[in-house]
Specification:
- The protein is built from eleven helices and 23 strands.
- By secondary structure, the protein is an alpha/beta fold.
- The strands form seven sheets. Strands 4-5-3-6-7-8-9-10 form an eight-stranded mixed β-sheet, with helices on both faces. Strands 22-21-20-23 form a four-stranded mixed β-sheet, with no helix packed on it. The protein has a three-stranded antiparallel β-sheet with strand order 11-12-13, with no helix packed on it.
- α2 crosses α6 and α8 packs across α9.
Amino acid sequence: MKKYFKEVLKYQLRSYPLIKKYVREIEEMYDMEPLLLQKRNEERFLYIFKKAYRHSPFYHHLYSTAGINEDDIRCIEDISRLPVITKDLIRQHGNQMRVSRMLLPNHTSGTSGTPLDVWESAESILREQAYFYVYRKRCGFHYGKDRLASLRGNLGREDTTLWVGLAHTLFLSSYNLRKETIDKYVEAIAKVCPKAIEGYPSSLYNLCCLIESEGLSCHIPLCFTSSENLLDYQRDKIAAVLQAEVYDHYGTTERTIRLEETLDHKGYYEDPGYSINEYTVDGEITTSLINSDFPMIRYQTFDLFETTELVVPPSLSDGRHGIFPVVRRIHGRPSSVLVGKDGSIYTNAALTFVISKNTTLEIRYAQFVQHKDGKVDLRVVTDGRILTIEEKKKLLKMIYEKIGRDNIDLEIIQTDESNLIVTDRGKFSYVITEYKQ
């Protein structure tokens, strides 16, 4: 019952009456001529820069030290003169970055398992929801009217399904998917008849594999994926089994970039007016245009993109003349899973709660390493402090609440960064499988 009311409250706080003015604003930007949208983005960027320079102790010191005065930045092209900020800088100086005290905390571990506290204004949260509303409307789905199935991390191990009528949403646990439970998922979906389903690609893929292997059937017209790389074989399986049109989304908890798959599936475009993005060989540098109270100006992340060869102005990917993809493929989010003793699959994205909900433990890195079904090491790197026995017990309790105490034998190993596993390219993965599944 507690989870039910929590989801009802979340829906009401982000419902159409509260976001409609931002919906109108975004829809207007979709229809803007490219040069007009560029001017709008420039004005927004200069407003955020000046606000940060005047009212954020962190940015004022950063720019002053770099020899940059407020009047030196006069147009969007001048953004390249500003220093790049990193996750480490935000971790160290997050409170000094804020220009308002009336902010809400948000936590992310990202794909690297590195914790980060960021802050959001109520307005930026509503704007974020409005972007979801507008994009999915373009795909044929209407929030508040059409029914949705959500296969994400809302439910834990103890629940399989939860129907929240007010939100028109059927929540499905991503932690209970296995042969013995798949019929419950299919029955719940058939009863609700959702027009769309959202979820992690690996969870949706697992759902579809189980439906197919058990000889069941399920039809959901639209599918929205996010939080992990959508791989070609996953897309093909999901589209075939659910008879669904699949649309992918890329974003970050830091709210500095949003990419949407084009309706013709030929690439990804930048949501109009959301951010300024600079794509480099080492990852993207992004500047948020939706959260002026916790400025994120030239924030470096390390997800990699294969950009298109189309020549379009920065941050202009959609206009009345059609959608212009600026990214052909996203390479930055490897999808890995853990396998429980009973065959349940736990995804990379679904396990990020271990970091994001344990910020008081000062965990810097975490990595799940699986040796065989049901046998997993959780390698933990802190900022130098040794975790107590009680803190480890607390961490284990939270994990077992999600995945089941008897389903995985898990050992917490506190170590240093040299004992974390990286790829040949030096890329860190939150979940590592050291055996052939």
